[in-house]
Amino acid sequence: MGSGGGDGDGGRQAQPLLGKLSESSSGEHLVKRTGTVWTAMAHIITAVIGSGVLSLAWSVAQLGWVGGPAAMVFFAGVTAVQSSLIADCYISHDPERGVVRNRSYVDAVRLYLGEKSHLFCGFCGFFLNFSLFGTGVVYTLTSATSMRAIQRANCYHREGHDAPCSVGGDGYYMLLFGLAQVVLSQIPGFHEMAGLSVFAAVMSFFYAFVGVGLGVAKVIANGVIMGGIGGIPMVSTTQKVWRVSQALGDILFAYPFSLVLLEIEDTLRSPPPENETMKTATRTSIVITAFFYLCCGCLGYAAFGDGTPGNLLTGFGFYEPYWLIDLANLCIVLHLLGGYQVYTQPVFGFADRHFGGAAAEVPVLGARRVNVFRLCFRTAYVAATTALAVWFPYFNEVIGLLGAFTFWPLAIYFPVEMYLKRNKVTPWTRQWLAIHGFSSVCLLICAFASVGSAVGVFGSETS
């Protein structure tokens, strides 16, 4: 996946449909697609439900009891629509090459929109790859936060909840996470990582359940449901507007997985048609995701009201039982191991297809064959994400801000334009107006959320 790698008619971006077998983009080997709706759901849930689910209570606290749940349901619907549009772009019919597969997001944009402007592919490829790389850095940073939270939980248990309990060692934790990723990165591709995604999805369910359970226990202990209709009151209207903007952005950006959707769809077996299986997996996963988001967000706000922390586990809204907090944070780290791979394998796949050579014999391993380029490139890639996380621990704010500004083009505009092109929708018809109306509404919301994200980042830097 990337902005480079061939022009619109080089044949790299899509290959002939050969039943269950299809050549890779480089034509080096055949890939048997065995994925099902269950493996697709595992990939999706691993990609979508991150530790950010525990931060949604803060967003609900800003929006209140009406706005918070309504925003979660609305953005779940937006994600369902845009993911369905992308899913239909996997198989395309070319007059010269016949039925072809678009194995990545950039491949689909190049095929459907490349003839309109080469800037489309350049913009899409650059920001897509930067977002994927940035996600790897953010996951490395987040893993260190959860590991540090385990230390703090143990300290609070020993010394009391008011103890300073300042712990360090973030760089050490990031290096451990990076070493684990060096090993996991040798998984050949999406087709072989279903087991890792299932494991990571189970871990995400566990810590989400812990957050829900602790929220229920806190509400029962309080004997009252905290919070209000309008959310946390602010000193000024301007401050409230920015908080609402940030909260909407947090919820909006917590759902989509468009960056890796076509890679996931490329693992599915056929029949039934891949887009039908993908749509079923997508809708089911979004319902599950929305359920957990609503539970964690609403129960967290009900438990803490105006004092809702930024993260229910790492922000220490809960202190006891400390062993459960430790276990939940450990599950976050284990989930991030799989989540990192979901967002990194597309980059590895692109590099393998366009730059990877044949497997070379390594005498130390006897008869086993190792692709030297794959080993070196993937190790260097993981080292780069780890090094940037260690040297620039505020990178997650940068990538969050960039994600806010690129969300609409990548998640809404390109899917809409590809759908219109693929289905040859006549301009100014009812369908054309409805789809462009959907895109325009999303643009306004994304612009509002992006400004709020910018204010939040620069405000935190100057405070």
CATH class: Mainly Alpha
Largest sheet: 2 strands, antiparallel
CATH architecture: Orthogonal Bundle
Tell me the strand percentage band: under 5%
Mean pLDDT: 82
Instruction: Give the tally of β-strands.
Output: 6
How helical, in percent, are the residues? 55-70%
For the terminal residues, how far apart are their CA atoms?
A: 39 Å
Principal-axis shape equals: globular
Rounded to an integer in angstroms, the radius of gyration calculated over CA atoms is: 22 Å
Number of domains: 1
Annotated CATH topology: Hydantoin permease
Please, how many helices? 13
Coarse structural class: mainly alpha
Strand order of the largest sheet: 1-2
**Name given to the CATH homologous superfamily:** Hydantoin permease
Q: Which regions have little confidence, pLDDT < 50, spanning 5+ residues?
A: 1-29
What does this structure look like?
This is Amino acid transporter transmembrane domain-containing protein. Pfam families: Aa_trans. The chain crosses the membrane at residues 37-58, 70-91, 119-141, 172-191, 198-221, 285-304, 324-343, 375-392, 398-420, 432-458. The chain is mostly helical. It has one domain (21-462): Hydantoin permease (Orthogonal Bundle). 66% of the residues lie in helices and 4% in strands. The protein contains 13 helices and six strands. The chain has helices at 37-48, 56-87, 105-113, 118-159, 170-184, 194-222, 237-252, 261-265, 274-304, 322-355, 372-391, 395-423, 430-462; strands spanning 21-23, 30-32, 91-94, 98-101, 360-361, 369-370. The strands form three sheets. The chain has a two-stranded antiparallel sheet with strand order 1-2. It has a two-stranded antiparallel ribbon with strand order 3-4. A hairpin with a 3-residue loop joins strand 3 and strand 4 (98-101). Helix 4 (118-159) runs antiparallel to helix 10 and helix 4 (118-159) crosses helix 11.
